[in-house]
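Task: fold both queries, return tokens.
Query 1:
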Amino acid sequence: MKISFPIVALLGLALAACGGNDNGNSGNTATSTTEAKVSVTALGAGSYDVVLGDESTPTVGHYYAAADGSRYLIVDDSNALATAVYKDAADGSWKRVPASASDVSISFLSNSTSTTLKAIDLNALARSYVALVQGSAVAFSLSADGKIVASSSASCKLNGTVGADVVQGARKLSLSTAGCGALPATLQGLMIADGDYAPAVLRFVLDDGSQITELWAYAE
């Protein structure tokens, strides 16, 4: 089951990037200091479109399970923007961002499906991009060796390194920011490429351990 990124969601990115809503984009500041138990059904290596919740009010998510046992679950809202990220560092101990105040146990409905995404070819993706951050277009480039470099003219600087494949269609990403308002200075997460996200080319779903930062990159 594929979920296309709706154009209407573009209208919410500016507000989300500056902390104006609770849709999981870069301004999602919902946090909790409560240590809650988190469990998520383990799936085999691969990528999946998953459905959770109950059949009357289902929620869509994207599940990425790496061969090394690490797993990521991104839960979206109705505008296809991340509201929560669940991470398992291959030892079975899941963590939720933002943290939950109560225990969480997630299983998937039967209409969850495995997906086949193309491997991320950095050579093909190497170019200049723009992302919407706090209502402003922020330019950066992605090189064939996986380096994200901020535009010299950008007041908000995005720099980072794209890491190894998690699964086809998703790679690890480390990003640093400077002059970007409320965005955390250091972020870790995934860079995802999926044709269903057009016109966006890349989706960044990142966190600093307490809040989600989500950016959509468009080719300049």
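Query 1 returned. Query 2:
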Amino acid sequence: MTILTNKKITLNKDTRTFIQEYINYVRDVNPEDIYEGLNNKQIIGNKFIFKMYQLENLDLANVDLHIENNRVFVLARFWNSQIINIGSIPLSGSLKIILNQEFYPILKITGGKYKKVVTDTYGEDTIVDDFEPYQLTLEIHKADQTTYKSQRIDEIYHRTFKNEHQLVTLSKNLMRCFAIFGLLLGLGFMFLGFFLTGLMVIIAFFGVNSYTLLLADVHMQEQRQRA
């Protein structure tokens, strides 16, 4: 991974909105990214942690660059969210050369809400919640062939599935097809006299997929209740 340059972004008024929406999204899809999945007790129990930010990265954000009037405007989105102009950087001569080659941009974040371990007068450790202003940095990486292909796949993926519900629905329908296929195949083996083989096929295809669908439905109900 070769970093061609990194520049601090001059943020605008929409940046805080983007970050808050991103945090809400991460809470749903990967809550382990919030405070690294640790609660106050776990942070205090880890003697190597003295300060932990709510958000350590913006790995799920898709970044695009738009050049206008000698400035590079940084556009960001995640999944099927609205594209937001989070800020800009000046377009220097060296940056213009970099942007004329194969590259891919990512965002780095510092600041925001954080938890700090504080020792009181009695020697007891407690957690103090505080906030620092956000700062976003644009990193431009040299695109190797693997990364370029990965980005193309990611673009096709997001164009195909407009939202998470479509992806979940397709996955569940495929699992239903495998379950039915396994049931029919297993019954076919049984009909031909291979009872144990048919039973194993039914368990492997029909049983496992049906159980997974049941767990998925239970999880979705829990998510709706929490919302």
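Both queries returned. Flag for query 2: The helical segments are 15-29, 40-45, 93-99, 145-160, 164-191, 195-226.
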